[in-house]
Design goal:
By secondary structure, the protein is α/β, with parallel strands linked by helices. It contains 6 helices and 15 strands. The protein binds manganese (II) ion.
Length: about 260
């Protein structure tokens, strides 16, 4: 049984009846890293330095060192990222269950709403309307907010920072609690630099997606791309973070298996 399931997967990939979509941004210095208010410490962006490049530092080989934060580029947030999740068992990237690294996804198309309002707030009611057309969000799934953010945001102001803070889409508290309590999701994902809305500092509690998702052992995925290539339902996400000791999160390659 299991042998035939795996053989079917391998055959599907080799024949193209299963496509593998890359949801990952290229790690590069110019990709924006989240900026906190200046009283807080900041995360490192991506930096790469050549060790040798077929030259006198290493005539036969090319390699580089790189540095970045656990939350730079396309990355996963583990429960220990947030204070509410600090005591969640196996809540770091080196201890999280490997079963969480493969999961179905529901992709909620919010592109029209975000085009009209970059600070669009995702509500329980919006998701219930989505379920009318797409069926109930299954337990253990990812929910991704599709915004096509790279087409909407100003590349020189990717978080859409204004005088009153960032304006980018995300869920409100009621929506987050409904996803947890009524749908038992694995986590929440987005193309923006955070799973919470840009204005979520002013919500109750502040940053409800981080607060409640991580407080209940759930995950986040941020800075993804290509969500427009995914169906609303039926794709499977593979997201295996680096095994950083006590890691609060990790850059990773996120891919989706999609039946062609
Ligand atoms: Mn993060």
């Amino acid at each position: 049984m299991s042998n035939s399931v795996l053989a079917g997967l391998v055959e599907g990939v080799s024949t193209g009846s299963i496509q593998i979509i890359d949801l990952t941004e290229t790690l590069r210095p110019e990709y924006p890293t989240i900026q906190l208010p200046e009283e807080f410490a900041q995360a490192w962006g991506f930096k790469k330095e050549t060790i040798s490049h077929y030259d006198e530092a290493g005539p036969g080989w090319a390699w580089s060192n790189f540095s970045m934060s656990e939350h730079t580029g396309t990355h996963l947030d583990a429960p220990h990222h947030w204070v509410t999740g600090k005591d969640v068992p196996n809540g770091t990237v080196d201890t999280m269950p490997t079963s969480q690294m493969v999961a179905p996804v529901c992709v909620v198309d919010c592109t029209k709403e975000v085009a009209a309002d970059k600070g669009f707030i995702l509500t329980r009611e919006f998701l219930q309307n989505w379920e009318e057309s797409n069926g109930e969000i299954p337990a253990g799934s990812w929910v991704f907010l599709r915004s096509d953010w790279r087409l909407v945001a100003d590349p020189d102001n990717y978080t859409n920072m204004q005088e009153d803070g960032a304006h980018s889409p995300g869920p409100d508290t009621e929506c987050v609690l409904w996803l947890i309590e009524q749908r038992d999701v694995l986590g929440f994902g987005t193309e923006c630099v955070g799973t919470d809305a840009g204005q979520a500092f002013a919500m109750e509690p502040a940053y409800p997606c981080h607060h409640h998702m991580h407080g209940t052992g759930r995950l986040g995925l941020q800075c993804m791309t290509n969500l427009d290539l995914l169906p609303a339902t039926g794709a499977v996400i593979v997201s295996a973070p680096l095994k950083i000791i006590d890691g609060s999160g990790s850059p990773l390659r996120v891919v989706a298996f999609v039946a062609a």
